[in-house]
Amino acid sequence: MAIENDHRLQINEDEQIRWIAIEEIMPNPYQPRKNFDAERLNDLAESIKIHGILQPIVLRQTVQGYYIVVGERRYRASQLAGLTKLPSIIKELSDADMMELAIIENLQREDLNAIEEAESYQRLMDDLQLTQQEVAHRLGKSRPYIANMLRLLHLPPSLKDSVQRGELSGAHGRTLLGIKDKQRMIQVGRKAFKESWSVRYLEKYVNNIQEGSQPYPKVTKEPLKPKFIQKQERLLREQYGAKVDISTKKQVGAITFEFKSKEEFERLIKLLHDK
């Protein structure tokens, strides 16, 4: 289910979209995302200058002011775009709601790196006293998926940093955990990054270490999409709040929007028609 369809965020009859001064708005203290990519924020800011904000942000009002529940990237990009007021929906929510909704938003927007995602699950378990199964149920994930992500928190700090910077994927990190010696694990992780190893190749490499066999298989690099295409995918994902894939072959291409429910499909169609 798309986060916009969460019952806690539905607009009631007595609620209206309000324009809140940007200086009165504060970031969500439970925001799981620690790093906001400057280039992506600038891209979104340029989009906001042209198209405006397509979806209002969600705020929680307290005695200190307004805290963001959903929409922190839009808030930060709006600051860069020079906006002074933001369209907002004010909801009465608990601290637990703020934490959970911030995580759900980032997961659905694919805004978290694997370490931030794992830390989010761990924080839900610690702060709300939840089990892995309960976290999985609340976030629409399987328990094995949650358990696999939490394994990444056992990586040495330097490899965690590599995953956070995007040098290695979460799948790379989980594969490296198969190496028991921490120093060897770090060495292999650095080699995997420098030589652009695929996850499949790293798996073979780690298996050979475990079996004590030589030689290692030949590295094959996987092609990456052009930066222009990646940028357009990011912009569309930010604008429509859905996963977007752009594929090209010779002179023909396709833009694909992903939706996982009828409600999400209808929301996307409405946004496309409104354009």
From TrEMBL:
<dbReference type="GO" id="GO:0007059">
    <property type="term" value="P:chromosome segregation"/>
</dbReference>
<dbReference type="GO" id="GO:0003677">
    <property type="term" value="F:DNA binding"/>
</dbReference>
<keyword id="KW-0238">DNA-binding</keyword>
<dbReference type="Pfam" id="PF17762">
    <property type="entry name" value="HTH_ParB"/>
</dbReference>
<dbReference type="InterPro" id="IPR050336">
    <property type="entry name" value="Chromosome_partition/occlusion"/>
</dbReference>
<protein>
    <submittedName>
        <fullName>ParB/RepB/Spo0J family partition protein</fullName>
    </submittedName>
</protein>
<dbReference type="GO" id="GO:0009295">
    <property type="term" value="C:nucleoid"/>
</dbReference>
<dbReference type="Pfam" id="PF02195">
    <property type="entry name" value="ParB_N"/>
</dbReference>
<feature type="domain" description="ParB-like N-terminal">
    <location>
        <begin position="18"/>
        <end position="107"/>
    </location>
</feature>
<comment type="similarity">
    <text>Belongs to the ParB family.</text>
</comment>
<dbReference type="InterPro" id="IPR036086">
    <property type="entry name" value="ParB/Sulfiredoxin_sf"/>
</dbReference>
<keyword id="KW-0159">Chromosome partition</keyword>
<dbReference type="GO" id="GO:0045881">
    <property type="term" value="P:positive regulation of sporulation resulting in formation of a cellular spore"/>
</dbReference>
<dbReference type="InterPro" id="IPR041468">
    <property type="entry name" value="HTH_ParB/Spo0J"/>
</dbReference>
<dbReference type="InterPro" id="IPR003115">
    <property type="entry name" value="ParB_N"/>
</dbReference>
<dbReference type="GO" id="GO:0005694">
    <property type="term" value="C:chromosome"/>
</dbReference>
<dbReference type="InterPro" id="IPR004437">
    <property type="entry name" value="ParB/RepB/Spo0J"/>
</dbReference>
